[in-house]
Design brief:
By secondary structure, this protein is mainly beta. Helix content is 0%, strand content 47%. Strands 1, 4, 5, 6, 7, 8, 9 and 10 form an eight-stranded mixed beta sheet that branches. It has a two-stranded antiparallel ribbon with strand order 2-3. The N and C termini lie far apart (67 Å).
Length: 144
């Protein structure tokens, strides 16, 4: 049974309309930016003994511990707690003594949401612009 009483949208006689109670708006939860950065041959060296790799010559800044930053559209840095993990060689399936690329993973936590577009910079390799909607995915960055 459905019961509707006093639903005219008008206040009862002798009463005053109640103001809408504002709801407390919560800021969006911070983002965690995850991704990988890949260096192709010939921009890295690798060690078979430790199965790690790092940038070489003009790419020497791309190595374990290199900073990953996330900035807003104006270039203000929002997150700098990110760093590259140790580089993992991508071994040639036809020749296990040869690596074809060096893959680094990274995570930057606590990035404020709601900026629309973000700039992601790995070491000194330049900024890549990423729409906020894509930050929920694992980013795939690297040299082209």
């Amino acid at each position: 049974m459905l019961l509707a009483a006093g639903c005219t949208g008008q206040p009862a006689p002798g009463s005053s309309p109640t103001a809408a109670t504002p709801t407390a708006s919560r800021p969006p939860l911070p983002l965690t930016v995850r991704g990988t950065f890949t260096l192709p041959l010939p921009h890295f060296t690798w060690r078979e003994s430790t199965l790690t790799c790092e940038g070489w010559r003009t790419h020497a800044s791309v190595r374990a511990g290199a900073q990953v930053t996330v900035s807003d559209p104006a270039g203000v840095v929002l997150g700098t707690a990110g760093q590259l993990d140790a580089g993992q060689p991508v071994v040639d399936p036809d020749d296990a003594t040869r690596a074809t690329a060096c893959l680094f993973a990274f995570t930057v936590a606590g990035v404020p949401a709601g900026k629309g577009t973000y700039g992601v910079t790995v070491a000194d390799r330049g900024k890549v612009l990423v729409p906020e909607a894509k930050l929920s995915e694992t980013l795939t960055l690297g040299l082209s």
